[in-house]
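W.,

You were right to be curious about this one. When I first looked at the sequence I had no strong expectations either way, so I just let the prediction run and decided to look at it fresh. Below is the sequence, 272 residues in total, followed by the output.
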Amino acid sequence: MKRPRVLIMHAPGTNRDREAALACELAGGDPEIVHINQLIAGERAFADYQMLVLPGGFSYGDDLGAGRLWANDLYHRFRADLDAFVASGKPVMGICNGFQALVKAGYLPGPDIPQQVTLTRNRSGRFECRWVRLRPVLDSRCLFTQGLDEDVLCPVAHGEGRLALARTGTTSTLWHNGLVALRYVVPVDPAQAGQLSVNVPVREHAEYPYNPNGSVDDIAGICNRAGNVFGLMPHPEDHIFPIQHPRWTRGEQGGMGIQLFRNGIRAAALFV
């Protein structure tokens, strides 16, 4: 079967594109890292790809806010092409800085909830780099998290990752419409920290440092109503091999982020 082509968009300051490309390749895709200038010049076209990934980094040095200038490019330079890509149902994934750009360009959680969700400075007031535990929300519309039966372990590395809302009712809107895809969790029983089944009981709220940025309702990732546009702050591309598990030398394994990419590639294959 022909591998779906994956556009890994590279903007000035992006530094996680190679890791994202490797994850997509291992998941069965045919990734290509494409600089934003190649798209502007018409050397590459969104329509030639079946999946889009906006990787992490510090696009444009985070001037004017994390992801803001990249979001301006998405909205003003590529809006027609990106709108068509999203409307077709092709999968789109934004990781960390890519998530910030999708939110600030209005693609997450979507045009029907404009400018009511943002990603802003961590409550700790500093850059956070640590491993977190993510639980897929079972009734989410997100195609990337479908069928996951265990929590995902992966690191975060950001200073502006706190999901904040402009209106108090927006939280219930996200949950009611199945737009919350992942949340930060911590097991009730510390002895179960190594057990990754989604059936392991977790606390009602994941306090810092388990929720590293103070996101409302411990939300780590969201999607649009169609479920094909997905963004998350943590880095699943940093846990795609068993030996990347932080306790692999002690025999612990599982919780890899590769399944998120496999689900995306599986959806992208429908467009080949």
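Here's what jumped out at me. The longest helix spans residues 258-268. And, maybe more interesting for your project: The chain has one domain: 5-271.

Coffee later to discuss?

I.
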